[in-house]
Amino acid sequence: xxxxxxxxxxxxxxxxxxxxxxxxxxxxxxxxxIARGDTILGEGWHERAGEAHAEARALxxxxxxxxxxxxxxxxEPCSHFGRTxxxxxxxxxxxxxxxxxxxxDPNPSxxxxxxxxxxxxxxxxxxxxxxxxxxxxNPGFMKRMNTxxxxxxxxxxxxxxxxxxxxxxxxxxxxxxxxxxxxxRLRAVSDAILTGVGTVLADNPSxxxxxxxxxxxxxxxxxxxQPLRVIADRDARTPPAATILRxxxxxxxxxxxxxxxxxxxxxxxxGIRLKGVAWKDNGVDVAELLDSLGALGIxxxxxxxxxxxxxTFISENLVDELWLYQAPVFLGSTGRxxxxxxxxxxxxxxxxxxxxxxxxxxxxxxxxxRR
Amino acid sequence: xxxxxxxxxxxxxxxxxxxxxxxxxxxxxxxxxIARGDTILGEGWHERAGEAHAEARALxxxxxxxxxxxxxxxxEPCSHFGRTxxxxxxxxxxxxxxxxxxxxDPNPSxxxxxxxxxxxxxxxxxxxxxxxxxxxxNPGFMKRMNTxxxxxxxxxxxxxxxxxxxxxxxxxxxxxxxxxxxxxRLRAVSDAILTGVGTVLADNPSxxxxxxxxxxxxxxxxxxxQPLRVIADRDARTPPAATILRxxxxxxxxxxxxxxxxxxxxxxxxGIRLKGVAWKDNGVDVAELLDSLGALGIxxxxxxxxxxxxxTFISENLVDELWLYQAPVFLGSTGRxxxxxxxxxxxxxxxxxxxxxxxxxxxxxxxxxRR
Lengths: 371, 371
Fold this sequence. Notes:
The structure is a homodimer. In chain A, 28% of the residues lie in helices and 26% in strands. By secondary structure, chain A is of the alpha/beta class. Chain A folds into 2 domains: 1-137, 3-Layer(aba) Sandwich (Cytidine Deaminase, domain 2); 140-370, Dihydrofolate Reductase, subunit A (3-Layer(aba) Sandwich), CATH 3.40.430. In chain A, a hairpin with a 2-residue loop joins β1 and β2. In chain A, α3 (87-93) packs parallel to α4 (113-120). Chains A, B: This is Riboflavin biosynthesis protein RibD.
């Protein structure tokens, strides 16, 4: 059994890593503590891609005192020169004598190399302390490294009778202020937000993070950019005047045959990236879409879409987490369904495990994963 | 401010009263404590109509020690000869010197008379201690005495996407064992259970209390009878072989013009009580139905009905409590709606206050009241 002290130090490193929740993408969130016994000598976390890694910051704070000390890191230190020098080398050079890493680097091409480099330098290395807690820091980075696809969060706001809008499409506002602020935080941790052209045409949303609605972000680093906005739009029907096209990068995924059409070229002329993907009867080929987004370095994807696209994600079992905001209202039996999901028998029902359930203002937020 | 001791004693009386939750109907649940200082001399609760009242039981336990003692009673003691002698007289004869009553008798024709009788005998009487807690013992009795109608609980079992059944009608089982046991307890506290003939024809339910599924009822008195089962059935289509017609009393509310038809007379021949009421476009005249049930002495009505009847109760704002059992599943967009409730605009949405929210096995139970 690992010592209480060691668990405490790693817990602190995890806590530090969370400070990068709005800012590290596409890099992972990483925290590091340098300590001798119960005394913390240096703390660091990764803030932004291109800037210092967690280990470098913690070592810099510890200075010469790092010699002979222990490093607690939420992720295996890197072994390669990227935009910054390898952290494994820095730990060795600083004279660190013991390393705890919560998780291995999930990137198959470098996994284990950092640990190896440390061990070759005579440093005792243990991997796995608070591994679950550390993995939760980076569900998207972990999944993308393993599968090439982003972590998919599907967000829905519905009534207790399972409606997301009136038959007319009227839907503002089902949930309250606090739930909408919570969605701002969800957007801010996301690398990309996906919607369908139907939502763009009906609601003309911006799908940006509005900093003033994020509220107090505590000691987290300020969001450094808007998430990439992604529109599934077979025929490039997104109007050039659509609000979503302003305020940051936008990708439009259309049918391959659409790319050369006038509407698509009009969008391209605005600087919108267009990519042709396959379409099926029920809409975009979501699996191919996810592969493309993974290739773009998207770790965490938030889907804020209408019932059709939402239903496709659910029926193809491509949702990692369903974030369901439930308002204590009935919108009536003529309202729009939560998701387009035609099922015939009880045996086909979609079963969820409730991972988290909490009150958000007057509403309830459920985080659901497929059973 | 009332003394801690007095609040504790009344809380004990409320606790005792709850022991009659399955058995006192149509009488109210009442508890009584006879005490001197911190010493409880006698305790009683009403168990069944026709049997001793709470005060009589507590006085009997206290015996001669009651002289000069204080009585804590959840409801104003009765002043009239009913099936038992008046409790106010018994308290006087026992030499009680001080009485706390949590609530006045809500029956307008006797309210205040018990208190008056006690005061005339020189007893100091205070009314209102833990009044809310005591009122919750008898929402139906209180409401019926004030309005002539029962307390209406609408029970629904739905998925997170707001469906109560598949399009085919298949609905067994949406919720889990624990939720179904909870519904048994809900039935057992109810004086009557209302359903529509559609549900009878589709599901052939019994709507009885199955004692073995009630589980441990603690120190509560055993249920003494089945709740009255009530069917809204305009044309007397309930099949004489229907399961619901067995296992206790059944009332069929049909259209007045149906009473003399052969199907109605076939039911009457089985001992089923038929009553003609008005029908409107969207079904039975629920207000008239509630008046009739109130006149029958029904305090607490449980509605277990299909979407049409449920929708009528909601749209006519006749639901006192909506008990919604939510299973962590999606049944899909082709499933049956929670309630037939055609609404056009967000402004018409039905807003609920969550009075209670708790986990029941894998499911969530919400008790909702109209905002």
